[in-house]
Amino acid sequence: MRKVALITGVTGQDGAYLAQLLLDKGYTVHGLKRRSSSFNTGRIEHIYQDPHDPDPRLILHYGDLTDATNLIRVVQEVQPDEIYNLAAQSHVQVSFETPEYTANADGIGTLRLLEAIRILGLQQKTRFYQASTSELYGLVQETPQRETTPFYPRSPYAAAKLYAYWIVVNYREAYGIHASNGILFNHESPLRGETFVTRKISRAVAAIKLGHQDKLYLGNLDAKRDWGHAREYVKGMWLMTQQDKGDDYVLATGVTTPVRDFVTWAFEDTGVTLEWRGQGVDERGFDAATGRCLVEVDPRYFRPTEVELLLGDPTKAQEKLGWTHQTSVRDLAAEMVREDLKVMQTSPVMKEA
Ligand code: NDP
Ligand code: GDR
């Protein structure tokens, strides 16, 4: 019998990599996708099958984490062995503008799924993975951050994810559900959403190289992140649901990098050496060879409260799951720039954009 998984957020970066991984492992994969006025399945097109296929392995259902009846119906229909709850309004800065929606989707949405499991009597059958986040650590309490580090959320997004984290722990303890929190540090890839900083940088570097863009505007260049590759992190999610018991694990690389260095490396991969001058809002990045200004700080990208430093300690995941990251942040930057150059050189629409 094939195992059956339900992935919420299947159209997102992690959803696409996880769906691929589970299909490769022989699962039947059900995905929840939102109704949108334009196509939102670009990241999973290569694995999507004709719905008329007599034995489809990837099946999509319309749904939304803010709609409890819909979630109960989908879970009832699918009877999943594993649920991966990846759906979320996942942009930290956007959460300051849409705090109530973010709380509803990211916080209460998680509760709705757990309740669906309980209402349908699936506590013993369905294992649950929750996409928790290093944003929970927020204001630095200790580094490196590990499973026992106290949380101090610094955004509506992080506060919503804090609720989700604890409701997962509570349903595990109260109802015996096999439920796990993956406290994942930032992970990126060529499939990363275009408004997150690494992809914004890799796209801009490619566009500047091809002469489609003059300059890159960024916010806080001093923020430090522990960046890994998304393809490797979804393996950790799967490993968590394969354990005898649900538990909470940090997935991270153990290396932290300021945004500024990521920018420098991304340009280096196209042969441009950046020279940084100035400080704070006046800091600029110049092409050392031509003296042309390529990077400027724009305070509109500053956040009302910032998370300055994330650095994870993945020891527990290494010891208990046998999980470890492989791709370095420099290789990640190179891969992202390379892929964006490819896309822009081959797609006329992207070229125009
Ligand atoms: P993305 O933003 O790429 O994907 C989010 C997914 O959630 C998309 O499929 C999106 O649909 C869907 N979604 C958003 N709102 C709703 C809703 N109300 N109902 C149903 N679906 C919804 O995120 P990632 O793939 O990068 O991240 C996956 C999860 O992991 C998220 O929960 C994120 O918060 C969390 N996380 C991510 C980290 C990272 O570094 N990437 C680190 C730690 C945690 P649509 O495509 O239509 O927009
Ligand atoms: P983050 O990712 O907030 O860590 O959340 P993001 O890439 O948005 O920001 C990382 C850091 O870069 C700084 N920054 C900028 N960020 C953006 N988006 N745009 C800019 O122009 C810019 N300039 C500087 C930010 O201030 C920040 O410090 C991601 C998401 O995937 C969450 O869902 C996830 O939970 C966490 O990672 C772990």
Automatic annotation (TrEMBL):
Keywords: Lyase, NADP, Nodulation. Its EC number is 4.2.1.47. One of its GO terms (molecular function) is NADP+ binding. Its cofactor is NADP(+). It comes from the Bacteria. GO terms for biological process: 'de novo' GDP-L-fucose biosynthetic process. It is an enzyme of class 4 (lyase). It catalyses: GDP-alpha-D-mannose = GDP-4-dehydro-alpha-D-rhamnose + H2O. Pfam families: GDP_Man_Dehyd (PF16363). Residues 6-336 form the NAD(P)-binding domain. Belongs to the NAD(P)-dependent epimerase/dehydratase family. GDP-mannose 4,6-dehydratase subfamily. NCBIfam families: gmd. Catalyzes the conversion of GDP-D-mannose to GDP-4-dehydro-6-deoxy-D-mannose. This is GDP-mannose 4,6-dehydratase. It comes from Devosia chinhatensis.
